[in-house]
Structures are given as C-alpha cells and as structure tokens.
Amino acid sequence: MFKDPIQWLMIVAGGLIYSIGLNAFLIANHLAEGGFVGISVLLLYVFHLPVGVTFFILNIPLLVVAWRIFGHEFVIKTTAGVLCVSVFSEVTKFIAVPTHDQLLAALYAGVVTGIGLGLIFRTGATTGGADIIARILRHYRGMAMGRTLFAIDLIVICVVIIIIGKQVAMYSLVALFVSSRVIDFMIEGAQNGKAVTIISDKHMAIVEEIHKQLERGTTLIQATGGYTGTDRQVVYCVVGREEVVRVQRIVHEIDPLAFMTISNVHEISGEGFTFGDDPRRKKGLLRSR
Predict the structure, then answer these.
(1) Closest CA relative to residue 53, chosen from 11, 12, 93
(2) pLDDT at 23
(3) Whether this model's pTM surpasses 0.85
(4) Which of 53, 110, 216, 217 is the most buried (most CB within 10 A)?
(5) Residue 170: per-residue pLDDT
C-alpha cells in the first residue's frame, strides 16, 4: 500500500487543511462547494445536517462499487481521504473567519482548500465522491474524467443558484477556480520552466553559446526533415522562465532563420535545477549534456 509513511501524513494534513478552508471561509461566509462536499454543504444549509457525517454516508455506496471495480488498493487510499475530510470537517467546525467581503472569502477558500486537496492528490489518494463516479463512467463508458467532474460541479452550482442565489453561486465558482489552480500548482510543482526546441543548420554554434552563456545542458536529437528528407540535429534544452529571452537572443544572433518552439514544463528535477552544483563540474570533469 503506502510504503512511505509520509504519504499517510500528507493525506491527514491535506484533509485537515481542506476542512479548515471549508469551515473557516466557505461555510462561515455561506458559500458553496462543488462535488459531494458541495452537496453536503447544501444539506447543512437547508436541513442543518452535519457536513462530515453526510459526506461519509454519501460515499459508502460508491466505495463499495469502487471496491468491486478497481480493487482494494484504490479504495483504501480513497477511504483514507474520505475519512480525513469527514472527521476533520466536524472537528474544525469551530474555526470560522466571517467577512463582509464574500469575494475575499472565496479567494482564501480556494487557496486553502486547494492546498489541502493538492496534498491528498499528490499521494495518489482522492476524496471520493465525484472522483469515483468519474472513474466508473470512464471505465464503462469511456467518458473523460474532466468532463464528468465539471458536469457534477455544474449541477451542484445550478442547485446553489436555485436554493441560495446567483451571487453566492458566482462567488463559489471563483473559489472553485482558484482551488483548481492551486491543486495544479501543488501537483505539478513550483519548479516550472520552459522547454526549447531548436532546428538550425548552425546547431553546434547555438549549443556552444547556450553552454557558455547560460551554463545549461542541451541534448542533440537526430531527426529527418519530412519534406526534404535531410538528416539534421535538433537542439533540445530546458531553461528557467527568465532565461528564455536569452536563448531567443542567442538563436537569433547565430541563425535568424532557425525554427524554434517554446513550451511549458513542470516539476523539473535534476542537475542544474534541484541537485545544486556538482563538484565535478567545478573541476571541469563534468561536461554539459
């Protein structure tokens, strides 16, 4: 299951942080949430049912179905996430940060809940509910999970419009959007950069200048032109966001006709980004790739 106990701690911490964001900013300011937590929050507003208990009960039949379809490993991970959210959402009910500015509450709610869910998702666990339904529909119908999750959130928000009002629904959408962006940040990592692909007849001169000026490694990829059938080397390198302009300048100065593409990359690890300086490089024993 989880060989690393840190993963268990991340699920617990994620459930706690998510629940604090839920109670302190969403519920305290009468905002809504998406998915099964959103349904539980609506039932709290209308029938005063406890969010944690409702959320757990709603997930029981889904967990049983998921056990039969996906096996015990996925269900155990998901049950851990469900239990943490269910328990901590009741334990942290006393934490409330009411404000007259619902937009500010939505922004803070999105950030805090996004951090909590991001920690849980990084372990491979989920918080059940809509995620299980999305996986089941993908398994049997081939439906994309993103579309299913969006549809469920949309249904919940529509119910919010009917029961609570349009203004609350709009602020709740802001919280959902911010939360999704924070989740992406937590999963993809803070170490972002740019991948640069360069096609030029003067590739070696470009490589040398990148090594010299940026001290970044490069990779030469053997390629063949689809139209001309000519063999040539393609230069590939990953640089920090602030270094992209310098790469563009180098390429333009050496070969103004070079073909270059730049794309986003996430979670960069390795020499030059996360390993620090290698002592062999200082001695000239390590060459750039």
Answers:
(1) 93
(2) 97
(3) no
(4) 110
(5) 94
Radius of gyration of the chain (CA): 25
Rounded (10°) CA dihedral 150, 153, 159, 164:
-130
Q: Do 207 and 218 meet the contact criterion of CB atoms below 8 Å apart? A: yes
Inter-residue contact 130 to 153 (CB < 8 Å) = yes
Residue with tokens 């990953």: 238
Q: Tell me what pLDDT residue 228 has.
A: 86
Q: How far apart (Å, rounded) are the C-alpha atoms in residues 149 and 160?
A: 17
Sheet architecture: strand order including 193-199: 219-224, 231-239, 193-199, 259-265
Q: Tokens standing for 30?
A: 């009468």
CA angle, 167 as apex, 163 and 169 as ends, to 5°? 60
**Sign, Cα dihedral of 203, 207, 208, 212:** positive
Confirm if 258 and 251 have CB atoms less than 8 A apart. yes
Strands 219-224 and 193-199: unpaired
| Residues linked to residue 272 through DSSP beta bridges, in sequence order | none
Length of the chain in terms of residues written? 289
Q: Are 119 and 13 in contact (CB under 8 A)?
A: yes
pLDDT (average), residues 232-237:
94
212 token code pair: 């010299």
156/32 Cα distance (integer angstroms)? 9
What phi and psi values does residue 98 have, to the nearest 5 degrees? -70, 145
Which bin fits 58, alpha (ψ -120 to 50), beta or left (φ > 0)? alpha
DSSP characters for 57-73? HHHHHHHHHHHHHH-HH
**Residue 33 carries which side chain, given as an amino acid letter?**
E
Mean pLDDT taken over the chain: 87
Element holding 265 (H helix, E strand): strand 259-265
DSSP classification of residue 275: S
pLDDT given for residue 51 in this prediction: 96
Query: What are 199's strand-pairing partners?
Result: 234, 259
